[in-house]
Amino acid sequence: MKQSSMDESARPIFRSPLLTGITVVLGTVLSGSLILAVLLRFSAVAEADLPYFTYGINGVALLSGGWLAGRRAGYKGWLYGGITGILYVLIILIIGFLAFDASMRVQPFLFTVCATGLSALGGIFGVSTRRP
């Protein structure tokens, strides 16, 4: 009988750093959006402040997804984090194009640059915090 060095319960669900990172980004955005919707409904938060909360949720999600992708990869965190950001932007652009018939403008390009930078920064931190 072959014994493994890791316990079955300690194995990661996703082995791919990119799949892990994008899952964390999407999960964080969805949960942050749900919390924001509850705040809008039951508190005095104004709808005029919505873009700031949205940028904050996306920023935290991209940093955490890039951090986990870089930590899972163990090397080249900037690359794995950056690719995670690009994948997230592609998903958002495809949803925007298919669901809302959004046309291409300058804003998605700026969002792509910022998202890639934030998630790459998260990937750098992720590699730095990895235990040897």
TrEMBL record:
**What are the TM regions of this chain, as residue ranges?**
21-40, 52-70, 77-100, 106-127
InterPro entries, sorted: DUF3792_TM
Record keywords:
Membrane, Transmembrane, Transmembrane helix
Superkingdom to which the source organism belongs: Bacteria
- Asked if the keyword Signal belongs to this entry, the reply reads no
What NCBIfam families has UniProt attached to this entry?
A: TIGR04086_membr
Q: Can you say what this protein is called? A: Membrane protein, TIGR04086 family
* Originating species: Kroppenstedtia guangzhouensis
